[in-house]
Design a protein that fits this description.
This protein is of the alpha+beta class. The chain is 39% helix and 25% strand. The protein has a single domain, classed as Vaccinia Virus protein VP39 (Rossmann fold, 3-Layer(aba) Sandwich), CATH 3.40.50.150. The chain contains five helices and six strands, in the order E-E-E-H-E-H-E-H-H-H-E. A hairpin with a 4-residue loop joins strand 2 and strand 3. The termini are far apart.
Length: 130
């Protein structure tokens, strides 16, 4: 296996790819990084414009953390989200099950949804959050 799970400084997981010699998220904190870059600077920006439907194209699904945190933010905002993502090198369901995101985000009821996202990864993923 060329992917290994590592713990970031904040206690969230990221993955180290030996093939690409890179981590999927910042080693300072995967959740912090996603919250700042993807949710606050991206998703929230479009919510603040008053859009009723937001279309997201993510190239590189990776750990699925961006999609998970978008799903959690969507639950609070009740906006329509079309989320399309492509991944050339899926991490696989077994590795996804080891990621600690839903427990750290205090969202254990979304663990099943998170795993389903990874099961759909074999092709492309279209997540319709309505």
């Amino acid at each position: 296996m060329d992917k290994s799970l590592i713990l970031t400084e904040e206690g969230s997981h990221t993955i180290l790819s030996q093939q690409f010699e890179a981590t999927y998220h910042s080693t300072h904190g995967a959740i912090q990084e996603t919250r700042t870059v993807f949710v606050e600077a991206g998703f929230q920006h479009f919510l603040n414009t008053g859009m009723e439907t937001i279309n997201i194209l993510e190239i590189g699904f990776g750990t699925g953390l961006n999609a998970l945190m978008t799903l959690l933010a969507f639950q609070k905002e009740k906006v329509n989200v079309n989320y399309v993502t492509y991944e050339a090198y899926p991490i696989g369901v077994e590795l996804a099950k080891k990621l600690n995101y839903t427990s750290l985000l205090e969202a254990p009821k979304f663990q099943e949804d998170f795993i389903k996202m990874h099961q759909m990864q074999e092709d492309s993923v279209l997540l319709k959050m309505t």
